[in-house]
User: Fold these one by one.
Assistant:
Number 1:
Amino acid sequence: MRFIDHLIVGGAGGNPARKASVFNPSTGQVQAEVALGDAALLDRAVQAALAAQPAWAATNPQRRARVMFEFKRLVEANMQDLAELLATEHGKVTADAKGDIQRGLEVIEFACGIPHALKGEFTNGAGPGIDVYSMRQPVGIGAGITPFNFPAMIPMWMFGVAIACGNAFILKPSERDPSVPVRLVELMLEAGAPEGILQCVHGDKEMVDAILDHPAIGAISFVGSSDIANYVYQRGAANGKRVQAMGGAKNHGIIMPDADIDRAVNDLVGAAFGSAGERCMALPVVVPVGEGTAEKLIDKLIPEITALNVGTSLDPSAHYGPVVTAEHKARVEDWIGTCEAEGGKILIDGRGFTPQGLEGGFYVGPTLIDHVTPDMDSYHNEIFGPVLQIVRAPDFETALSLPSKHQYGNGVAIFTRNGHAAREFAARVNVGMVGINVPIPVPVAYHTFGGWKRSAFGDTNQHGMEGVKFWTKVKTITARWPDSTPEGGNAFIIPTMG
Ligand code: NAD
């Protein structure tokens, strides 16, 4: 059985009895085991990071950026292997796995421009002989705790920016699909990241708690489900750390009566069922607005959804593959049952679905449910599976209030030909990322990613300049170089520039 070990300076070691199974969700077989670390192992990684970080911070940013350029080249050269490895552990199809890697690489491209991003501010002559300038210095040791659903992109969101800023970084990927994160760390070392600057530890709650409590870790970035995100935020912040913690989502797609329905249906099917719905920017709720819109939409949705091909993650003809674990399959099917019991009308039922010959795999067929209402538990909660719920809205204001009042506020999309409606919606909706005729509005790497409400705890987003701010501390220097030292004056009053 393949064993996936920690990748830390000095070799892993650790307690061999603590390990977890890694499945191939397409077949249901265990294909590897992953080590689960503890506080002692983490401390070894932190000591190595502490030893390496000052020299890395003192390396000029252009040289740090060169490591990022080389890393990008290496990831691109290994794209096919990485995508297949990712697909066989996560369950998403290979083309989608390439998208996962590519979106992470775009943050690496942003990190290649770090000399520009770190330039700071300068005011010449803020007072007589006085200049004021700021510099951004690395936090020191950063840690990233990542979810199973983007095992390439999300680690790169974090370590790409953190390391380019001059930090050392310890990655704790999801124990369900840890192989690609380990490969990414290996490729960073091959690209020239010095020993100790990027390390990978594996584990469950025990390791996460060790990270939250380690006094030498200055900043923690977390992405995962909301209850755990909130816990990570509270405990990390109580320990005096900088914490950003992204949580769950329930994104709505608003279909206005004037929308291009054919295009919206095409977008919706990809956004609701791609990656088996296991994306925090999926669209699991569609809101047709006004009389007759729901009927028009459903007429077109049903044939498109019925034609979806669900297969193994390596089947090039499959639109999507299995969900990540047997427990998650059971949970998604339970939510479909709950929604039905709450009064939802099931138009397409994906429960009990198994592609021929793949009886052990964790498959859920595409599911479409009409007449879902905001009082239902199955609407209120994240299902994170290939399930599309239809919530009918009589008018624009009702449609606007649905995502605005929902506990999650990650993403939302409106489909319309009316620029004014789109503009109003974008300005007023209580959600962090908005798409206008764009179903999955994941911002490009040089902008920033982050939701509102229970979709994010802490106040700094991922990547873009927000990421640079998160991984650095600002220092502001006020310098006086006078012609001659002025006589007298009262040194005990606050200096003014006048
Ligand atoms: P998860 O919360 O189960 O796990 C995330 C991380 O937390 C993993 O590294 C895991 O090992 C660790 N963890 C698990 N249980 C823990 C515990 N009790 N205490 C401390 N740490 C623990 O999430 P997941 O199932 O891997 O990922 C799916 C979730 O992530 C969904 O809710 C999805 O919406 C969310 N997500 C959010 C974003 C975003 O940017 N908002 C992006 C991707 C995924």
Number 2:
Amino acid sequence: MYQMLDPKTLTVLVTGGTSGIGAAAVRRFAGAGARVIVAGRRAERLKALADEFGDRIHTLELDVRDWDATQAAVAALPAPFASYNVVFANAGLALGLEPAHEVRMEDWDAMVDTNIKGLLHTVRATLPGMIARKEGHVVLTGSIAGDYPYPGGNTYGGSKAFVKQFSLGLWADIAGSGVRVTNIEPGLTETEFSLVRFKGDAARADKIYEGVAPMTGEDIAEQVFFACTLPRHVNINRIQAMQSHQGFGPLTVKRG
Ligand code: NDP
Ligand code: 8X3
């Protein structure tokens, strides 16, 4: 029988663990017996996860945009959490759907600071430990938006295209080190993503998921769990998944 890794041997650090895909990953791994370090900014969400899973969970109230805080939080991890061997750099957001010439600069800054710089902070703070231990796995949350453009996706899509290329560059650097790299690229997934994108406008957010059965955080967490529990000689470079009614738009020609 094919031998998957025992999840009880995994200690998983999840950023963006307080909601959506990240929270589902926390539950998937902790539910299977892994230790999980959950990072996010919302303290009450972190506490709820700690209450649910007890001493299998360690929480970090952390804004990944802050390099000093990210570095310090990783350096201060207590045993046995300090020997993490999976890092799921998942925290991220989209803000707005305006065309480039109308967008608020603060929104572009926030996406770059979180989706690119926050992800880099997470990887740079955690990678040396896994390289030294010769065992680990970096999982990054990209998006189909990093592959296929859509109107209003400008900087969000650009940030996820960065994640795609960075994941390949990271693998070029560390293949053979014992640390694996996987880019998870979900499509339409119902989480707090659209509520955040539309700045609390729940009616507009709900419309995004109307008339389709969107993927859920659990669907994506299962893909992460699969990639991380494959035997260590297998590296999944990328998993791209779409909701089964989602397709590609045609190329447009704007005439006149
Ligand atoms: P959610 O809004 O439900 O979750 C986002 C998570 O990111 C929250 O836990 C939030 O925690 C955290 N986060 C945001 N900013 C920061 C920050 N500065 N520091 C630390 N944590 C932060 O959305 P999703 O679960 O959908 O999003 C997770 C990832 O999946 C994102 O990278 C997103 O781009 C990506 N994605 C989502 C898709 C979708 O359709 N939903 C599809 C493709 C990719 P807190 O607010 O507590 O800090
Ligand atoms: C989120 C997917 O298509 O809503 O990354 O931008 S999409």
